[in-house]
């Protein structure tokens, strides 16, 4: 592994590739590589995901106790808070605006120079569903969270990793998996 790599997603990707290479060489001859059905790979992937990529992910606390089954829609408030926080961090990095509903659910996001409060107030649909005070309160709460600076750094590294490898077929299999587990 290259010691000069500082992007934790690149490090995790290289570690998974090396893990699969060693597994294929020593144990399996019919491995398709990065196979989610392989329990050994899935375990290693989850290990890296929760320990190295997202050590503050709320699901990490629940995994030893019970597997929620990733039910859709997930009823776990901590999980949704994490998702919304990651979205706010991504919007901050990309200079996007994000607006929430009365129910504290992100409703709309996009370029900050296009998705403005004036624009949303001029649109009857958004005027009804977007709550500007809730938006301000949610964003303030998220940014005051002690993990926010680490989350911001993690999202920045993820976006860099994804941008670099978006056209590289040998690495695209991890781009989305590293974002959502």
Walk me through what this model shows.
It is a single chain. The protein is mostly helical and 181 residues long. The chain has 2 domains: 8-56 and 149-179, no CATH class; 77-146, no CATH class. The chain contains 9 helices and 2 strands. The chain has helices at residues 8-26, 39-53, 59-62, 77-94, 117-122, 124-129, 132-144, 148-165, 172-179, and strands at residues 96-100, 106-111. A two-stranded antiparallel sheet has the order 1-2. A hairpin with a 5-residue loop joins β1 (96-100) and β2. α1 (8-26) runs antiparallel to α2 (39-53), α4 (77-94) crosses α8 (148-165) and α8 runs antiparallel to α9 (172-179). The longest helix has 19 residues, at 8-26. The protein starts with 7 loop residues before the first helix and ends with a helix. The model has no long low-confidence stretch (mean pLDDT 84).
Using the alpha-carbon principal axes, give the shape: elongated
Largest sheet: 2 strands, antiparallel
Count of domain modules? 2
Distance between the termini: 24 Å
Query: Helices and strands, in N-to-C order?
Result: HHHHEEHHHHH
Please give the number of β-strands: 2
Share of helix, binned: 55-70%
Helix count from the secondary structure assignment: 9
Widest sheet: strand ordering: 1-2
> What are the low-pLDDT stretches, counting only 5+ consecutive residues below 50?
none
- Find the structural class using helix and strand composition: mainly alpha
Strand content: 5-15%
Average pLDDT: 84
Using the CA coordinates, give the radius of gyration.
Answer: 19 Å
């Amino acid at each position: 592994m290259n010691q000069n790599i500082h992007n934790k997603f690149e490090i995790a990707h290289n570690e998974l590739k090396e893990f699969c290479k060693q597994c294929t060489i020593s144990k399996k001859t019919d491995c398709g590589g990065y196979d989610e059905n392989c329990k050994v790979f899935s375990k290693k992937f989850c290990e890296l995901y929760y320990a190295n990529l997202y050590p503050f992910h709320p699901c990490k606390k629940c995994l030893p106790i019970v597997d929620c089954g990733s039910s859709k829609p997930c009823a776990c408030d901590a999980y949704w808070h994490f998702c919304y926080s990651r979205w706010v961090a991504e919007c901050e990095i990309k200079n996007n605006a994000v607006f929430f509903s009365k129910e504290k659910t992100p409703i709309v996001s996009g370029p900050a120079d296009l998705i403005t409060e004036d624009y949303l107030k001029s649109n009857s649909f958004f005027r009804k569903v977007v709550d500007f005070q809730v938006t301000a309160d949610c964003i303030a709460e998220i940014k005051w969270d002690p993990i926010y600076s680490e989350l911001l750094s993690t999202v920045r590294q993820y976006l860099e990793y994804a941008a670099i490898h978006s056209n590289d077929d040998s690495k695209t299999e991890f781009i989305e998996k590293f974002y959502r587990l």
